[in-house]
Amino acid sequence: MKRVFVLSSICVLTGCANVPFGSLPPADLKIRPDTSKTPLAKMVRLAQSHHQNSLIEIEKLSNIATTDDEETVESIDGEFQQTTEAKEPEETQKTVKNTEQTPTKLNLALDTMRPPVGDPTASGVYDLNDGVEAFAVRNALIKNAQKTLDLQYYSLKSGLSTRLLIRELVLAADRGVQIRILLDDMETLGNDQEMSRLAAHPNIELRVFNPIKRWRGTRLSRTLMFLGHLKTMHRRMHNKIWIADGVLGIAGGRNLGDRYFNASEHDNFSDLDVLLAGQVLTPLNRAFEDYWQSDNAISMDVFQKGPADLSRKALRSLILKTNKLTSSERVLHHPYLTALKKAENHILPDVLPNMFWGDVQLTVDSPEKINHSPVSAQPDLPTEQHTDPQTPVFNDMVRAIADAHSELILVNPHLAPGDEFIDLMLDLVKRGRRVTLITNSLESNDVPLVNGPYDAYRLRLLKGGVQIYELRAIPDADKIPQWRHSIFTWKGSRASLHTKAAIIDGRISFVGSMNLDPRAIIWNTELGLTIRQAEFSESLRQQLLTATDPRYSYHVQIDANDKLTWLSTGSARERSEALPAKTVPIATQLKTKEPGSLWRRLQKWVGKLMPERYL
């Protein structure tokens, strides 16, 4: 009888998981403020003008904004309390502060600047492959934003870096910045209380994408809901977008959390995203808006439990605790915070004048992709006769790769792209192109299941002449953190590759959020940037090829008997021919057994048994 009751309860629960709401809040159609005269907008125009005084003027603008914000931090106890208690939001619609500001010394400095001259059709790009710099730029964008901040992410992990970002977001909201945050619901499992606390600020609105709509209260009920609707609930929003005042953006593969900013003492990702300016911000803003207004994006207010004033008090308490934490002697001298403080000093004046300007195309999967069944169980390459309209990001990356004339460098954490994509890479080798693949080893992969199908693909690629490098879990790095290189990490902590990029002929780059597996290509929504800028591409090429150094990656090779070997910490001349070898010899270590623990081998074996389309 108990079994019948339990099974009946599960059926009822799972049957109600995604029953449509009868009265969801209407789409947010508020008129967005004009951001064309904000400090960030002026900085972008200065950077694009390449004027000899642009560096000085950008630094002047950044210093004024940062100074004002630092004064706000010191008075957070009183000011945030005033903000949260002075206004009570209406029941049906979130109160939004008036963003019109009286003239300040910042406004006066802006008015004295000359209009810059530049190419209005060009886009600016700057690679953020260093974790600390990636965090510092985001922090600076929050501090310098005056009107709007839009964030769209698959994952927002708890940790020190997240608490610092949330503190700055709240401070920005206090001064009138309108903030919208869109998160995929997969990574908010069991965190409704934390999300409601953040959304309690009258100038912060938070929505979740493809959420479990019923029975969200506990992890058990949410897990049951997920399993009961696996067909729809395993389809996720994997996009990553950050936009400040509509004029500066960040897109790529990096989520939010300590591991993505090289801040974890246990494991860190080697990751990559791109700072963007200029013309590409038009489609980037439109992409965020499409997802924000999508029927799949539900306001966090719908799931809020308890009085709103309690969430506000909890948010204020979190900020005060963060202030106390970062001022403590133990944390104040933490190597990450020390490095971050150095990176934050003059970060925008350092970065913006060094942006490369050229042609940048943004491609984004439709938010409605998750509502439609895939055309095929495996990714189909686009042809003149057939192109899958549901996978535009994958299609554009394939077209760029297929046009390689001399070299392809492909960097991706997961490789299970289907036979057609493998055929494409082998065909490039047959046509005389040098093809280099950089991916995770079994010991470094954060999802060892994917190594199951990867085994067969790897063997085919090696036999076909593709050079393969697999990131080591424990790079042979120095004992202290080397913050200026993303694949260097704490001695003793784990490293894992999270970068998704391709460099074609050293002239064209493709950077995005998409793993090369069926889940990313045909199930999830993704984004990608096709960057046709030779200087940027060559610079990124050199940085990525550093990962082929045997101190940081295994060079996977195949012998005459089709047996695999893993070469590491060997002569620098064992690296890819594309990277000039150093003269300093290093001791060689050759492994004939794939590096990885027994537990990881077991997961790999399970991955071989699972349908590839669900990995």
Please give a structural write-up.
The chain is of the alpha+beta class. The protein is built from 21 helices and 20 strands. The protein has an 18-stranded mixed beta sheet, with helices on both faces. A two-stranded parallel ribbon has the order 7-14.
List the helices and strands and how they pair.
Layout: H1 2-16, H2 39-49, H3 54-74, H4 76-86, H5 105-111, E1 123-128, H6 131-144, E2 148-153, H7 160-174, E3 178-184, H8 192-199, E4 204-209, H9 219-228, H10 230-233, E5 241-244, E6 248-252, E7 267-270, E8 273-278, H11 281-292, E9 297-299, H12 308-327, H13 329-332, H14 335-344, H15 347-351, E10 356-364, H16 392-402, E11 407-411, H17 419-430, E12 434-440, H18 451-463, E13 467-471, E14 494-497, E15 501-504, E16 508-512, H19 518-523, E17 527-532, H20 534-545, E18 553-558, E19 564-568, E20 589-591, H21 598-609
Parallel strand pairs: 2-3, 3-4, 7-14, 11-12, 12-13
Antiparallel strand pairs: 1-8, 1-10, 2-5, 4-9, 5-6, 6-8, 10-17, 11-15, 13-18, 15-16, 16-17, 18-19, 19-20
